[in-house]
C-alpha cells in the first residue's frame, strides 16, 4: 500500500510537469471522490491496526503534496496565459490614428449658404414655404389666374386640381405678406418642380431663391442696388449687372437681370457663349394686385421681388456644364468642391 501511495505521488507530480497538463482532469483523477487516492484509503480496512495510522498519515501527506503542486501549477498557467495575452494585445499608443473620411457640403448647399450669408448681411431674413402648395399661392395670388398663358411655362405635378408641387418659390412671397406687415425683407430658398424632361439644362426638380422687400417708398433703385451688391459679392467686385425689360404677371415693371461674365469680364467667351453677359434671375416691382391680394395697401407700400435659379447660379459660378451632375451623387464630381 505504501508503494502504491508512492506511485500515485510520483505519477501525479510527473504529469504536472508536462506543459499541456490539464489540471482539472488531474485533480479529479487523483484526488476526486472516485480518484486513485480515495481508492487506496478505502482499502485501509484490510490493514493491521498498527499500520493503519502510518498509512493514513502518509496518504494525507501525499494528498497535501499533490494539492500543493496542483495549486502551484494552476497559478503558473494563469500567469503564463496573462503574459501571452499581454503580449498578443500589445497596443502602440504612438501609432497615427486611422484616417476618418469626412463628407462636405454639396455644391448646391454651399452656393445656397453663400448666397444666404450675402443677403443676411444686407438685413434679410430667411422664410420658408411648403413644397406641396395650393394653386392659389403658386398662381392665383400671384396674378396668374386659371388659363393664363404663364401657366404653360410652369407646368408642374398636380396632387389634386388645386394642390400641386410648387413651380417657383414666389408663393412664399404671398405667405410672408399674409403673415407679416411691412417692413418685410426676406429671402426664401428651396426646391421647386416642373414637368420638364431631364437634360443638360432642365430638371423636373430644381432649386430657386426668392427675394422680397416691401416697405414705404421702395423703388426700382433699391432693387438695382441690392442685386448689384449681391452680384459683386457672389461673382467678384468687378461684376456689373444689366436689366432687360421682361414680363412677369406678379411684377410691374419686370426685368430679367444679367451679370457681366466673370470669366471674360464681358468680352465674350465659352462660359457666356460669346455674349459677355449671363442671365441669372427675374425681378421687378411687386404688382399692386399682389400686394392687395395679401392685404397690403399698394397706395401706402411698394416693394420689389426677385427669383433666381440656384442651379443656374452655381453652374455659372463653378463652370458646371450639366445640371444632372448635381443629382447623381457621383463622388468624382462632388469631390471637386
Ligand atoms: N418665379 C419666377 C420664375 O420662376 C422668377 C421671378 C421673376 C421671381 C420675377 C420673382 C420676380 O420674384 O419678381 O420664373
Structure description:
- The structure is a single chain.
- It is built from twelve helices and nine strands.
- The strands form two sheets. The protein has a seven-stranded mixed sheet, sandwiched between helices. The protein has a two-stranded antiparallel ribbon with strand order 2-3.
- The mean pLDDT is 91.
- It has helices at 2-17, 23-31, 36-42, 51-88, 107-121, 135-138, 150-153, 171-179, 220-235, 288-293, 310-318, 331-334; strands at 125-126, 132-134, 163-165, 184-193, 205-215, 241-248, 251-260, 277-286, 302-309.
- 41% of the residues lie in helices and 19% in strands.
- It has two domains: 2-88; 107-334, BirA Bifunctional Protein, domain 2, CATH 3.30.930.
- The protein is α+β, with helices and mostly antiparallel strands and 337 residues long.
- The N and C termini lie far apart (91 Å).
- Bound molecules: 3,4-dihydroxyphenylalanine (DAH).
Describe, in short, the structure shown.
It is built from 12 helices and 9 strands. By secondary structure, it is an alpha+beta fold.
Give descriptors for this structure:
337 residues; alpha+beta; 2 domains; seven-stranded mixed sheet; two-stranded antiparallel sheet; binds 3,4-dihydroxyphenylalanine
Amino acid at each position: 500500500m505504501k508503494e502504491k501511495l508512492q506511485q500515485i505521488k510520483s505519477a501525479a507530480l510527473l504529469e504536472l510537469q508536462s506543459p499541456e497538463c490539464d489540471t482539472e482532469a488531474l485533480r479529479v483523477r487523483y484526488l476526486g471522490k472516485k480518484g486513485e487516492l480515495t481508492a487506496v484509503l478505502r482499502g485501509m480496512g484490510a490493514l493491521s491496526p498498527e499500520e493503519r495510522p502510518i498509512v493514513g498519515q502518509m496518504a494525507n501527506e501525499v494528498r497535501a503534496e499533490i494539492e500543493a503542486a496542483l495549486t502551484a501549477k494552476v497559478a503558473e498557467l494563469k500567469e503564463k496565459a496573462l503574459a501571452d495575452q499581454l503580449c498578443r494585445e500589445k497596443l502602440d499608443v504612438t501609432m497615427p490614428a486611422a484616417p476618418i473620411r469626412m463628407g462636405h457640403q454639396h455644391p448646391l448647399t454651399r452656393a445656397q449658404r453663400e448666397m444666404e450669408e450675402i443677403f443676411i448681411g444686407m438685413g434679410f431674413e430667411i422664410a420658408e414655404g411648403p413644397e406641396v402648395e395650393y394653386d392659389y399661392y403658386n398662381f392665383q395670388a400671384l396674378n396668374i389666374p386659371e388659363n393664363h398663358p404663364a401657366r404653360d411655362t410652369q407646368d408642374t405635378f398636380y396632387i389634386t386640381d388645386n394642390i400641386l408641387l410648387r413651380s417657383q418659390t414666389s408663393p412664399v412671397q404671398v405667405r410672408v405678406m399674409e403673415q407679416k406687415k411691412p417692413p418685410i425683407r426676406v429671402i426664401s430658398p428651396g426646391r421647386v418642380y416642373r414637368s420638364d424632361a431631364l437634360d443638360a439644362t432642365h430638371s423636373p426638380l430644381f432649386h430657386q431663391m426668392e427675394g422680397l422687400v416691401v416697405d414705404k417708398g421702395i423703388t426700382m433703385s433699391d432693387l438695382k442696388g441690392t442685386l448689384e451688391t449681391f452680384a459683386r459679392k457672389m461673382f467678384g467686385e468687378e461684376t456689373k449687372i444689366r436689366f432687360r425689360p421682361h414680363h412677369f404677371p406678379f411684377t410691374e415693371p419686370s426685368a430679367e437681370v444679367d451679370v457681366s461674365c466673370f470669366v471674360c469680364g464681358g468680352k465674350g467667351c465659352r462660359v457666356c457663349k460669346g455674349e459677355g453677359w449671363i442671365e441669372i434671375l427675374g425681378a421687378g416691382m411687386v404688382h399692386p394686385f399682389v400686394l392687395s391680394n395679401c392685404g397690403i395697401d399698394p397706395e401706402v407700400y411698394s416693394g420689389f421681388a426677385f427669383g433666381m435659379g440656384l442651379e443656374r447660379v452655381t453652374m455659372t459660378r463653378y463652370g458646371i456644364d450639366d445640371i444632372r451632375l448635381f443629382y447623381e451623387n457621383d463622388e468624382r464630381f462632388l469631390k471637386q468642391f
